[in-house]
Amino acid sequence: MRVALHTKVRTDRIDAYEAAHREVPAELAAAIHAAGATAWTIWRSGSDLFHVVECDDYARLLAALERLPVNVAWQARMAELLDAVHDYSAAGADAALPVVWELP
After folding, report:
1. Against a cut of 0.85, is the pTM above it?
2. DSSP reduced 3-state for 1
3. In this predicted model, what pLDDT tens digit does every residue of 4-34 receive, in sequence order?
4. In what order do the strands lie in the sheet with 82-84?
5. How large is the angle between the packed helices 58-66 and 26-34, nearest 10 degrees?
6. How far apart are CA 63 and CA 93, in angstroms?
7. In which band, very low, low, confident or very high, does the pLDDT at 86 lie, cut at 50, 70 and 90?
8. CB distance 45 to 10 below 8 Å
9. Residue 90 has pLDDT above 80, yes or no
10. Which of 31, 39, 84, 97 is the right S-S partner for 4, CB 3.0 to 4.6 Å?
């Protein structure tokens, strides 16, 4: 499944956000893969961030990552940079953007 998400980086923290993503810890990337993600891409337009996550089960992915120490540490770092954060709680699966149209 593909899941699209929208978050927002603070306008005064864009450079720090992009710098952080050039240095995503290998342990975090491995944990995301182990939790079931096969790909995760983030695009930025101004302060808007658009994510596409490819995984088998997004709710299961969130549950696996929610309390994982490496992800908790990363999310604390991201909370300092973002206006709208990624929700890893059980309700976070409902934050996916609805599909309006897809080229068949």
Report:
1. yes
2. coil
3. 999 999 999 999 999 999 999 999 999 999 9
4. 37-45, 48-55, 2-9, 82-84
5. 140
6. 10
7. confident
8. no
9. no
10. 97
